[in-house]
Write a structure and sequence with these properties.
Elements: H1 3-11, E1 20-21, H2 29-36, E2 43-51, E3 54-61, E4 65-66, H3 68-75, H4 84-91, E5 108-112, E6 122-123, E7 130-131, H5 136-142, E8 147-149, E9 152-153
Parallel strand pairs: 2-6, 3-5, 5-8
Antiparallel strand pairs: 1-7, 2-3, 4-9
Length: 154
């Protein structure tokens, strides 16, 4: 899994050709922001959490951190990140390329309100050197997200 599955997923929205592939790594918010010449906050990072016997994804702004109280109040359980092996198993994407598109298994995807302050953001596309420029609303639509949440602090 990875970038090819993401491109196949984005093709149904006629966005597969918009995937940007960089020569160097974009595996971290800082590397992605530097490669694109944008502020780190505009990099849409996707975080992976345990959800009972399943998993869930939340795509958030690059400068946002999970607020444990908000998370627990929203979802009813404590935020526990997946291990790198679990991330790969559930999403099909390795750490450094996690994104809300082309997910291996059916899991819930949420988009955090921290992205709403930008006209455009840059989520990854399944590899450690790819991303795409989208509006926050497009991220929600193309991720087939369950909706918006407010679980972060800046």
């Amino acid at each position: 899994m990875g970038i090819e599955e993401v491109k196949a997923h984005l093709k149904r929205f006629k966005k597969d050709a918009d995937v940007i592939e960089i020569q160097g790594s974009t595996a971290t918010v800082e590397l992605a922001a530097a490669a694109l010449g944008v502020e780190a906050a505009k990099i849409a990072k996707t975080l992976t959490f345990r959800n009972g016997d399943s998993a869930m994804l939340i795509t958030v702004a690059g400068d946002a951190k999970i607020d444990n109280t908000k998370f627990k109040n929203t979802f009813g359980f404590k935020a526990r990140m997946l291990s790198p092996d679990e991330v790969l198993e559930w999403t099909g994407h390795a750490v450094g390329g996690i994104c809300p598109f082309g997910i291996a298994k059916p899991i819930d995807v949420w988009i955090d309100d921290s992205l709403k302050r930008f006209d455009y953001v840059y989520p990854g596309c399944g590899s450690s050197n790819s991303m795409i420029k989208l509006t926050p609303e497009e991220v929600e639509a193309y991720a087939l997200a369950k909706g918006w949440v407010d679980v972060c602090k800046l």
